[in-house]
Design goal:
Among the domains are: about 170 residues, Beta-Lactamase; about 160 residues, Histidine kinase-like ATPase, C-terminal domain (Heat Shock Protein 90). It is built from eleven helices and 13 strands. The strands form two sheets. Strands 6, 7, 8, 9, 10, 11, 12 and 13 form an eight-stranded mixed beta sheet that branches. The chain has a five-stranded antiparallel beta sheet with strand order 2-1-5-4-3. Strand 3 and strand 4 form a beta hairpin. Helix 1 packs antiparallel against helix 4 and helix 9 runs antiparallel to helix 11. The radius of gyration is 63 Å and the shape is rod-shaped. The protein starts with a helix and ends with a strand. About 20% of the residues are buried.
Length: about 500
């Protein structure tokens, strides 16, 4: 079973408290009595030193000090002369009403405690001390006894009962057991509180680390101390910030790599489609040229009229291939970034007039009336050659897609700092899902119709590339009666002129 750090800390610390309480109780039971006996012996020795200093041969002179020692230290004092005659006994100033000096008489019945050491007493020099634990045969009680020969030759005997010592030891052990139980209870509560407080930051750090493993770096450890836990918290916070930055950079790099891969796939797909479209666009005119050229070589039709027809077909298909190659070269040059615009100021209104003049025969042939609405002297910034290419492409597109109403309208509108040129033709609108795709190379809304007027599907791609190079907007809109293509240019000079309409 898995235990938490808090539980293990609580159990181990509580176990140590219980162990030391029981260990102390055992020590008290085994050695407290011996320590008390030793301590009593030291007390008797100290009392003996005091009596030695005070005693001058007359017990009456120091009676008060002797009584004070007896009561305060719980000892019995016996003073004998060098012949074992009793001169002083605890609690009595005189024995039998007089000092006892019987040199030849001993008092074994009155001093049974001295008998165990009596044989050693004769050999005891002045100042010598004998200590021992002696049992009184009459009272059957143990006493700690000190017997000493004073410098005067007299004998001093001090005793204290061991029963008091044993009773004190028993009381001390019982009290210690009681206090030990209280210590264990209070210690357990204190350890529990300490374990909670000690492990709380560790659990917090663990939660933060778990969050980091889930790539959640929002949590931070509140550092409130400079100890090891606080230092660990700072390290975790620093590690979290570094991992957050590193993973964010890695994700950004991964996203960029994914975008690059997707872009490469798109470009590869576009290249494949481009090659396929170019091959398809070149296949038909090449086949026609080859077929009609072989017919001329084999003199399939000998009359001049048919030969001229064959030559016209060959020249027409060659012109289509020439336009295709020219558009491809322009598009490749612009998109490669090698083409540089020659930006100049020119009058867009005059450019519209020149383009219409060039297309006047074509417009007249198809019976198309072009309505022009513009101001005079509208000056713009741009590459006049490329803008003319854009305008011609829009006009050709309008002519090729105009309906039976034969309506084409060119409008030049002055905005704040821009000039918008719009080319409208009446006819069928462009499907909504094709509005963004018509600017893609080789995209054709109506392939059969586009093939009929010789379109390659590259004209609007070239327009897009030129206007993007200029950094100006362009677009297409469906109207109720037709379609409008438009583009914008930067205005160089504003000359407010009255607008007028012109029809060609």
């Amino acid at each position: 079973m898995k235990m938490s750090v808090r539980t293990r800390l609580f159990l181990s610390t509580s176990g140590l408290i219980v162990f030391f309480v029981i260990f102390s109780l055992i020590l008290n039971s085994l050695y407290l009595g011996k320590y008390y006996v030793w301590q009593k012996k030291q007390t008797l020795l100290e009392s003996r030193e005091m009596i030695e200093k005070l005693y001058k041969g007359d017990p009456e002179a120091i009676y008060f000090e002797l009584e004070n020692l007896e009561r305060n230290r719980g000892i019995n004092i016996y003073l004998l002369d060098q012949y074992m005659g009793l001169k002083y006994i605890s609690g009595l100033r005189m024995f039998d009403g007089q000092y006892l000096r019987r040199p030849s008489e001993r008092f074994p019945e009155r001093l049974p405690l001295i008998q165990p050491v009596e044989t050693e007493l004769d050999k005891l020099p002045g100042g010598g001390v004998i200590t021992d634990v002696v049992t009184d045969p009459r009272l059957r009680t143990k006493f700690v006894v000190l017997v000493s020969r004073l410098d005067s030759g007299e004998i001093l005997m001090l005793s204290t009962p061991v029963a008091a010592i044993n009773e004190s030891t028993a009381v001390a052990n019982k009290f210690f057991m009681f206090t030990g139980i209280i210590t264990i209870i209070l210690g357990g509560i204190a350890v529990l509180l300490f374990a909670r407080r000690f492990t709380k930051p560790i659990l917090k750090l663990n939660d933060i680390a778990q969050g980091m493993s889930r790539l959640d770096f929002s949590q931070k450890y509140p550092v409130q101390s400079d100890d090891e836990v606080g230092q660990l918290g700072r390290s975790i916070n620093s590690l979290s910030d570094q991992l957050d930055r590193a993973i964010s950079e890695l994700q950004d790099a991964n996203d960029k790599l994914r975008e690059d891969i997707e872009r490469e796939r798109t470009l590869d797909k576009m290249r494949k489609e481009f090659v396929s479209n170019v091959s398809h666009e070149l296949k038909t005119p090449l086949a026609l040229i080859q077929g009609y050229a072989e017919g001329l070589k084999l003199n399939v039709n000998e009359d001049e009229e048919n030969k001229d027809f064959y030559c016209d077909v060959i020249m027409d298909e060659t012109n289509k291939m020439n336009r295709l190659v020219k558009d491809l070269l322009d598009l490749a040059q612009i998109e490669s970034g090698q083409f540089k615009l020659e930006i100049t100021m020119f009058d867009i209104s005059s450019l519209v007039d020149r383009v219409l003049d060039k297309h006047r025969p074509l417009l007249s042939e198809k019976g198309i009336m072009v309505e022009v609405e513009k101001n005079k002297n509208v000056t713009v910034n741009g590459d006049v050659v490329r803008i003319e290419q854009v305008l011609v492409n829009f006009l050709n597109n309008a002519v090729n897609h105009v309906d039976d109403n034969k309506t084409v309208k060119i409008t030049v509108t002055t905005l704040e700092d821009k000039v918008r040129v719009s080319v409208f033709n009446s006819g069928k609108t462009i499907p909504a899902d094709s509005l963004d795709k018509i600017w893609t190379s080789f995209y054709k809304v109506d392939k059969a119709r586009t093939r009929g007027y010789g379109g390659t599907g590259l004209g609007l791609s070239v327009v897009r590339a030129i206007l993007e190079l200029h950094g100006n907007a362009f677009g297409v809109e469906n109207n109720e009666s037709g379609v409008t293509f438009w583009f914008e240019l930067d205005q160089a000079d504003i000359c407010s002129q009255n607008g007028h309409k012109q029809f060609l």
